[in-house]
Design goal:
Its EC number is 2.6.1.16. GO terms for molecular function: carbohydrate derivative binding; glutamine-fructose-6-phosphate transaminase (isomerizing) activity. This is Glutamine--fructose-6-phosphate aminotransferase [isomerizing]. Pfam families: GATase_6, SIS. The chain has about 575 residues and is α/β, with parallel strands linked by helices. It has three domains: about 230 residues, Glutamine Phosphoribosylpyrophosphate, subunit 1, domain 1 (4-Layer Sandwich); about 180 residues, Rossmann fold; about 140 residues, Rossmann fold (3-Layer(aba) Sandwich), CATH 3.40.50.10490. Helices cover about 35% and strands about 20% of the residues. The strands form four sheets. The chain has an eight-stranded antiparallel β-sheet with strand order 3-2-4-1-10-9-11-15. Strands 5-6-7-8-12-13-14 form a seven-stranded antiparallel β-sheet, with helices on one face. It has a five-stranded parallel β-sheet with strand order 17-16-18-19-20, sandwiched between helices. Helix 3 crosses helix 4 and helix 14 packs across helix 17. The radius of gyration is 25 Å and the shape is globular. The structure holds 2-deoxy-2-amino glucitol-6-phosphate (AGP).
């Protein structure tokens, strides 16, 4: 979703820093962009629709703010792209979030000229108005920010300072040797500094030659607590890969081994799960399928019932939460609004919150009572691969830890890491399969038991990378409706692991084959029901890990064949921070 990058520096390269910062946060998804730089006595703005150019000649300036926009209020037009200016062109703003009451606020503004359809432009004219009565930019921004309804992060400048205020949307400040930076993603700050300040909600700060931080409601000053991170910037760059998605899939064996280095955190969490009166797993999209897998794993391994919900539905069914419940919120970004909102409500009920996230310092991380990092490293492709694998591994290990069999769990995760390596070696085989099925309009994926969530996740991966309509079904549901969709040549992927589901899912494979489907069997052994066989060695309950890697690679190859950039699927953003 929208990205922010701002710089105030003693050097004159602020605009080029902003340009390269915006390039680093491109992965979040956007449809237009813009950069405002303070030159002489006013702001000069360059903006456009579409993606950032590879190169851009920018003026020299000490202060610059930029934005990548994902349209919400108003279409994708140059006028709607941020930064926006006030009437005098001496104030500028970039904004993430939605101002729910912007129409009411706009009605109160008299004599201002609006050039866009955005809620953001209303904010900058409100600040312009406030500057007439308040003594400083900081106060004018604070008063205005308090009048905004909704979850918003704003970065405002008058050319002398940058003022930042936030509630809900993520923002991180960096302190470099030449000045200060602000961004929506900490990784984008790493080329300049490793000293980072993760901003809490309801804070406002001013950056000029120094940095001052305050509560936005009362303007009470507080001491900022910067953290020095040891992250490697190159981990979030493409290196020699053509796409982040491919790079991230190749990193998966190492990610699994990283997870195995953190068994203490898993053991500690297992103790908490054992004591809880009800454990609930929530997440969105891919993370929700990891949560659903948790229900099956906890039942099969730990003989324990845990509940699951997609994040956006949890608020409607969470009346049973108490101060003795445990809510495990699973999120790569730690910023997904449909996870943050139910967590906020659960906190009111004093439910213990666990963050299973990839992002240190994220909103979810900061809100949680117990924090377990996914250990996947920065993930930039919109289609989640290595973070999902890390979710699977952590949840699998947790179920083994609750059963008191963590070592056994660790052994099969290690085995699955080796099997992921073998699957990655079979890319040419998957490429051939992709060529064979790339013209399909529909595709179905069947699994039972542990493989049912894998079928759902595989379908999502194929949808978002190839735009082929793919749907995952529980094998048992076929005769309850889905079988009507099968016609001659319909590709159907069938997961056949060496477990209790084998016979029944093979029967499903035979049923779809009898209706003309092209059956793609993903299994430890071939079967006459398969038209195409992809072998994945049996690693027990962890077979779900290499199985899903097959679907990730197939999605990737389908995207290439269909001339789609797998890293930037249309209409999707990496981090969904607005409802
Ligand atoms: C993953 O492939 C998807 N793009 C998407 O479903 C994603 O998993 C979802 O938006 C949740 O994101 P999170 O893990 O950052 O919360």
């Amino acid at each position: 979703m929208c990205g922010i990058f701002g710089v105030i520096t003693t050097k004159s390269d602020a605009p080029s820093q902003v340009f390269s910062g915006l390039s680093d946060i491109e992965y979040r998804g956007y449809d237009s962009w813009g950069i405002a730089s303070f030159i002489g006595n006013s702001f000069q703005v360059v903006k456009n629709i579409g993606f950032l150019p590879k190169k851009l000649t920018l003026p020299k300036a000490n202060l610059s703010i930029g934005h990548t926009r994902w349209a919400t209020h108003g279409g994708v037009t140059v006028a709607n792209a941020h930064p926006h200016l006030d009437c005098t062109k001496k104030l500028t703003i970039v904004h993430n979030g939605i101002v729910e009451n912007y129409q009411d606020l706009q009605k109160k503004l008299k004599g201002h000229t609006f050039v866009s359809e955005t809620d953001t432009e209303v904010i900058i004219h409100l600040i312009e108005e406030r500057m007439k009565t308040e003594k400083s930019l900081l106060r004018a921004v604070a008063v205005t920010f308090r009048s905004l309804k909704g979850l918003n992060a704003i970065v405002v400048s008058d050319g002398k300072s940058i003022v930042v205020a936030k509630k809900g949307s993520p923002l991180v400040v960096g302190k470099s040797k030449d000045g200060f930076l602000v961004a929506s993603d900490p990784n984008a700050l790493l080329p300049y500094t490793k000293e980072l300040l993760f901003l809490e909600d309801e804070t406002i700060l001013e950056m000029n030659e120094g940095l001052s931080t305050y509560g936005v409601l009362d303007l009470k000053p507080f001491k900022p607590s910067f953290q020095t991170v040891d992250w490697d910037y190159s981990a979030s760059t493409l290196k020699n890969y053509p796409h982040f998605m491919l790079k991230e899939m190749y990193e998966q064996p190492q990610v699994l081994r990283n997870v195995l280095q953190n068994l203490d955190g898993i053991k500690d969490l297992a103790k908490v799960v054992k004591k809880a009166y009800g454990t609930y797993l929530i997440g969105c999209g891919t993370a929700s399928y990891a949560c659903l897998l948790g229900v099956y794993l906890f039942s099969a391994i730990a003989k324990k019932h845990v509940n699951y919900s997609i994040g956006s539905e949890f608020d409607y069914i969470e009346d049973y939460l108490t101060d003795k419940s445990l809510l495990i919120a699973v999120s790569q970004s730690g910023e997904t609004i449909d996870v943050i909102e139910p967590v906020t409500h659960a906190k009111v009920k004093k439910t213990t919150i666990v963050a299973l996230t990839n992002t240190l310092g994220s909103t979810l991380y900061r809100m949680a009572d117990i924090k377990l990092l996914l250990q996947a490293g920065p993930e930039k492709a919109v289609a989640s691969t290595k973070a999902y694998i890390a979710m699977q591994a952590n949840i699998l290990l947790l179920s083994f830890a609750v059963a008191g069999r963590l070592e056994e769990g660790a052994r099969i995760v290690e085995k699955s890491a080796k099997e992921v390596e073998s699957v990655l070696k079979k890319i040419p085989q998957i490429k051939k399969l992709a060529n064979r099925i790339s013209a399909a309009d529909h595709m179905y994926i069947l699994g039972r038991g542990l493989s049912f969530p894998i079928a759902l996740e595989s379908a999502l991966k194929i949808k978002e990378t190839s735009y082929i309509h793919a749907e995952g079904f529980a094998g048992g549901e076929l005769k309850h409706g889905a079988l009507a969709l099968i016609t001659t040549g319909t590709p159907v992927i069938v997961y056949v692991p060496n477990d209790e589901t084998k016979e029944a899912v093979l029967a499903n494979a035979t049923e779809v084959k009898a209706r003309g489907a092209f059956v793609i069997g993903v299994s430890f052994q071939n079967n006459s029901a398969f038209d195409y066989f992809f072998e994945v060695k049996d690693t027990g309950a962890s077979s779900v890990i290499p199985h899903v890697v097959f679907a990730q690679l197939l999605g990737y190859q389908l995207s290439l064949k269909r001339k789609i950039n797998p890293d930037k699927p249309r209409n999707l953003a990496k981090s969904v921070v607005v409802k």
